[in-house]
Design a protein that fits this description.
By secondary structure, the chain is α+β, with helices and mostly antiparallel strands. It is about 45% helix and about 15% strand. A seven-stranded antiparallel beta sheet has the order 2-3-5-9-8-7-6. A two-stranded antiparallel sheet has the order 1-11. A hairpin with an 8-residue loop joins strand 7 (about 305-310) and strand 8 (about 320-325). The radius of gyration is 31 Å and the shape is elongated.
Length: about 375
């Protein structure tokens, strides 16, 4: 097959042909991608009340409009001297219609430019169509002329790469958000300083900055000492110390994440993951016993820490929901289970928390990004 561009006697591509290709790719491709959506929105605006009528109205109009734009693009390309104008126009139209569909199904989070999914679909359609016809021009030079086949290959490759591009941009967005949330938090951040616990996620939530830690493969990631056990609960909600085998049995019982911070939007659902919440001064102003007077919430003190139990609706009774502690500088932090966590680990983590040191946030950011 011959190349796409005609050639002047000097051997250089004609400017008119290049301009026509760019116009069809940068203007025609977005219009073709947006046309079916615009027709569908117009049909919904008519409020026919019956989906089958809306479909019957949209289908012929959308197909007819797309065919009309293909004919216009083919006429423009042919008039500018482009070889295979119909095939080039069909390549642009097919790319423009397939790109938004692939983005919607396989990469709905891909948003390279500000705007909704229709705007991003139009922009990506223009980019992929330009790359496809550009490949036709590049590979159509010299002795070997392949027509639009290189463009078809580039368009197919671009559509297949869209999910990977979506994952990359999502990761980059997560990294930027994590950096912003850590560096922009204007209060003390509680740090779990233990080599077997690694921070993997960070979120700003109501009341402070929530950081998710994941443990290593070891069964006891903190090397918890036997005496650091969660006390069994008494009828009055008190937390007596453990001094017998019955208490040891209660200490090793695992608990699931309950209502409240740490379970409303869990980032990790691992038996060895938990949330550390660094309180803001506004939340800290209510005191470390904040919320303990609410129905279904029972608080008790144990070794200068406040243990919070919350009730459930499944008949299992109150369960351990969080452990609160004061840091060296007076800030308050709390530990919340994520998934299923042994109660003694919550106590050990709360006991191991410390306030951040000067200049430590950069290292903390690196750990989160690496995790």
């Amino acid at each position: 097959m011959e190349g796409v561009l005609t050639r002047a006697p000097t051997g250089r591509p004609r400017v008119a042909a290049v301009g026509a290709i760019l116009f069809v790719c940068l203007v025609g491709a977005p219009l073709i991608s947006l046309f079916p959506v615009a027709v569908w929105e117009l049909a919904l605006g008519l409020d026919l009340g019956r989906p089958e009528l809306e479909t019957l109205l949209v289908t012929p109009v959308a197909v007819g409009g797309a065919v009309l734009m293909v004919l216009i693009a083919a006429g423009l390309l042919g008039g500018a001297g482009v070889r295979h104008p119909a095939l080039c126009a069909c390549l642009v139209a097919g790319t423009s219609l397939a790109t938004p569909l692939v983005m919607r199904l396989l990469s709905p989070t891909f948003a390279p430019v500000p705007g909704d999914s229709q705007v991003n679909g139009a922009v990506v359609s223009a980019v992929v169509a330009t790359a496809a016809l550009g490949a036709c021009v590049v590979f159509g030079r010299g002795r070997h002329r392949h027509g639009v086949l290189p463009g078809v290959a580039v368009a197919a490759a671009g559509l297949l790469l869209l999910p990977m591009a979506a994952d990359h941009t999502r990761d980059r967005s997560t990294e930027r958000r994590s950096i912003s949330q850590i560096s922009g938090f204007g209060h003390t951040i509680a740090v779990l300083d233990h080599p077997k616990w690694s921070p993997v996620r960070v979120h700003e939530v109501h009341g402070g900055l929530r950081m998710t830690y994941v443990a290593g493969e070891e069964a006891d990631p903190l090397g918890t000492e036997p005496e650091r056990k969660v006390p069994p609960r008494s009828e009055g909600g008190a937390a007596p110390a453990l001094d017998g085998p019955e208490g040891s049995s209660a200490a090793t019982r695992e608990v699931a994440a309950g209502p409240g911070i740490g379970s409303d939007r869990p980032v990790e659902n691992s038996p060895k993951s938990l949330h550390v919440l660094s309180w803001t001064p506004e939340q800290r102003a209510s005191g470390i016993h904040d919320g303990c007077g609410f129905p279904g919430v029972e608080c008790s003190e144990q070794d200068s820490m406040v243990v919070v139990h919350r009730g459930t609706d499944n008949g299992c009774g109150p369960h351990l929901s969080e452990v609160r502690t004061r840091l060296d500088d007076g800030a308050i932090a709390s530990v919340h289970p994520s998934g299923t966590v042994a109660p003694e680990q919550l106590f050990a983590v709360a006991n191991a928390l410390r306030a951040e040191t000067s200049g430590e946030r950069d290292a903390l950011i690196e750990e989160v990004l690496r995790g």
